[in-house]
Structures are given as C-alpha cells and as structure tokens.
Amino acid sequence: MKNVNKLAIPALITALALGTAVPASAAGWGHNGGQLRSQIAQLDRQIDRAEHRRLLSWSEANRLERRVENLKDMHQRYARNGFTRAELRILDRRVETVHRLIDRQIGERDNYRDGRNGRYYR
C-alpha cells in the first residue's frame, strides 16, 4: 500500500499542477478575457449608437445584436474554466468578424445616401 501512495501522490500533484497551468499560460497570450469582454461591450455600444444615428436599420441592428449576445454567451462559457489559447483565438476572431460586419452594414447604408440632401434611396 505504501508503494502505491509513493507513486500516486506525486502523479496527482503533477496532474493538478499541469491542469492549472494551462489557463494561466493562455492569459499571457495577446488578449485576456477582460480585454475581450471590453471589446464585446464596445461592439454592443457601437451597434446602439449606429442605430440611434440611423446608420443601421432596426433589423440590421437586431441581427448584429444577436451576434454580440452569442459572443457574450460564448465568453461566459469559456470563462468558467479559464481561457485556453484556442478559446481566446476563437473569441478574438469572432469579435473581429462582428466588427467588420458592423462596418460593412454602415458602409452599405452610406452608399444609399444622396450626397446633396442626405436622403436614403433604395
């Protein structure tokens, strides 16, 4: 029995140490969860401002807000166990995708404007 304890205890300590090191090592990579949470909140505010300024229609804003809500849910799921590098990369890419979609939607709406009087034409 003593021989089993001599082998099991160091193995258990090593496993625990490796298990806690993975999320900690991911925190040093490019972004951390707090920065991504801030970027997601910024996307949400950007959509609200663009809708208020009529740069986005209600349906465009609603579709983009659903994407932001999905990002918030994903961030929360990943944060429960600590972020891995892969999870941070996934979140970072999706934040960038939503950012590009917002810019594209605003740009498309700007293309409908008549330069003389600012009216929209479809």
Q: Which terms would index this structure?
A:
122 residues; mainly alpha; 4 helices
Number of helices: 4
Order of helices and strands: HHHH
- The total number of structural domains is 1
Shape: elongated
Number of DSSP-assigned strands: 0
User: How is the main sheet built?
Assistant: none
Instruction: Report helical residue fraction.
Output: over 70%
Q: What layout of secondary structure does this protein have?
A:
Elements: H1 2-27, H2 33-52, H3 58-80, H4 85-111
Helix pairs in contact: 2-3, 2-4, 3-4
Write structural notes for this entry.
The chain has helices at 2-27, 33-52, 58-80, 85-111. Helix 2 packs antiparallel against helix 3 (58-80) and helix 2 packs parallel to helix 4. By secondary structure, the protein is mainly α. It is built from 4 helices and no strands. It has one domain. Mean pLDDT is 78; it is low at 16-30.
Briefly characterize the structure.
The protein has 122 residues and is an all-alpha fold. 79% of the residues lie in helices and 0% in strands.
